[in-house]
Design a protein that fits this description.
The protein has 17 helices and 8 strands. It is mainly α. It has a domain at about 50-290 and about 340-345: Cytochrome-c3 Hydrogenase, chain B. Strands 1-2-3 form a 3-stranded antiparallel beta sheet. The protein has a 3-stranded antiparallel beta sheet with strand order 6-7-8. Strands 4-5 form a two-stranded antiparallel ribbon.
Length: about 400
């Protein structure tokens, strides 16, 4: 008697803890071998782009923190750069260095989360505990700078919300000096572990050709051997001040290379933090351009329509109008992209002479990386799917925007 053999279809997520949020995958299996994956996203969809279009420019900033909530400051950075591009504003050198400092702190926060939760998915518990101890210290520094640990709203159009104290600068510098030793403890546990190596090596390989076809960026692109990092290629903010900063790349394009690149990028971020802390001691400029008089004197911003006497209460009235009505930007559009920890994050804004964006478009790297999961997992075992998802570093706040 002949037996019929057919593939089985199973659900992975959205409740599965290794699904990194609300990802649902419908997987076709032949035994334990993956033959096809149907991706279902949108379970978290909040309509962020349309919400921003209904708010004045400044009110749209906190929505950025709710996208990739593991690396919030980068979304604020891209949004602020887009508004500054529309206004043709140049910020002070000190504000630029403060932005870079907290971006690199946030990059370390993101990669610590990515690497340690990935290790937890595969079965290693200790790196997770060590990594979150380091994250707690870094989040304390963010809190001391602006009063918030997670949704910071620290980077704003025109600069940053507040300066930092000399004591905080010294504490960040001390952390960056000691960080290499603390990171080496995690590396020693994982790199020399036979189980970790076998679970990642030659798993989820992506070639340079496929990475370009799927518009991969960040670690996934550099793991294929392509040297592309916007901090060096585009040199936005003041990254060109630090030619010592190098871009780590790999060649195999597998899960193990992506893990190693994140570890090396954390080392480079700590190195940049030390350099920036040293340079910040020599700048006494303003940290923000966002005050009523300087903004309203800019010819790219329409003045409030109602006239008032330029006498005693002028500064207060201007500030009140700026906060309540916002500023009006002439008809223009911009597209600004930055090197976020997960890849290239971009904001596109269209202005229409009103106080709120006519159109807002968000390009999230996680969405593009997720589209390649069928390619990465073809003919792998079901257990390898968890490993591949961990190396993609997905956060669904930015994917289901």
């Amino acid at each position: 008697m002949l037996k019929k053999i057919k593939n089985i279809t199973i659900n992975f997520g959205p409740q599965h803890p290794a699904a990194h949020g609300v990802l649902r995958l419908v997987i076709d299996l032949k035994g334990e071998q993956i033959k096809g994956i149907d991706i279902h996203i949108g379970l978290l969809h909040r309509g962020t782009e349309k919400l921003i279009e209904s708010k004045i420019y400044k009110q749209g900033l906190p929505y950025m923190d709710r996208l990739d909530y593991v690396s919030t400051i980068f979304q604020e950075h891209a949004y602020s750069l887009a508004i500054e591009s529309l206004l043709h504003v140049r910020i002070s050198q000190k504000a630029s260095l403060l932005r870079m400092l907290f971006c690199e702190i946030t990059r370390v926060l993101n990669h610590l989360m990515a690497v340690t939760t990935h290790a937890l998915d595969v079965g290693a518990i200790t790196p997770f505990l060590w990594g979150f101890e380091l994250r707690e210290q870094l989040m304390e520094y963010v809190e001391r700078s602006c009063g918030a640990r997670l949704h910071a709203s620290y980077i704003i159009p025109g600069g940053v919300t507040s300066d930092i104290s000399l004591k905080l600068l010294q504490d960040i510098n001390k952390f960056a000096i000691n960080f290499d030793y603390r990171l080496s403890e995690i590396s020693e546990v994982l790199n020399n572990n036979r189980i970790w190596y076998n679970r990642l090596k030659n798993i989820g390989i992506v070639s340079y050709k496929d990475a370009c076809a799927f518009a991969f960026s960040g670690v996934l692109l550099r793991a294929c051997g392509y040297a592309w990092d916007l901090r060096i290629v585009d040199a936005y903010e003041s990254y060109n001040m630090y030619p010592e900063f190098c871009m780590p790349i790999a060649t195999n394009g597998d899960s193990f290379d992506r893990y190693l690149l994140r570890m090396m990028e954390m080392q480079q971020s700590a190195f940049l933090m030390r350099l920036i802390c040293k340079d910040l001691l020599f700048f006494e400029e303003n940290y923000s351009w966002l005050d009523s008089k300087s903004m309203l004197s800019n010819d790219k911003i329409s003045r409030p329509k109602r006239s008032f006497l330029k006498k005693d209460m002028e500064a207060l009235i201007q500030h009140f109008k700026l906060i309540t009505e916002g500023f009006f930007i002439p008809l223009s559009e911009t597209y600004r992209v930055i090197e976020a920890p997960k890849g290239e994050f971009a904001i596109g804004l269209t202005a229409d002479q009103s106080s709120h964006p006519y159109r807002c478009r968000i390009k999230a790297p996680g969405l593009l990386h997720l589209q390649g999961i069928n390619l990465l997992c073809n003919n792998l075992l079901l257990s390898d799917l968890v490993t591949v998802i961990g190396t993609l570093d997905l956060v669904f706040g930015e994917i289901d925007k």
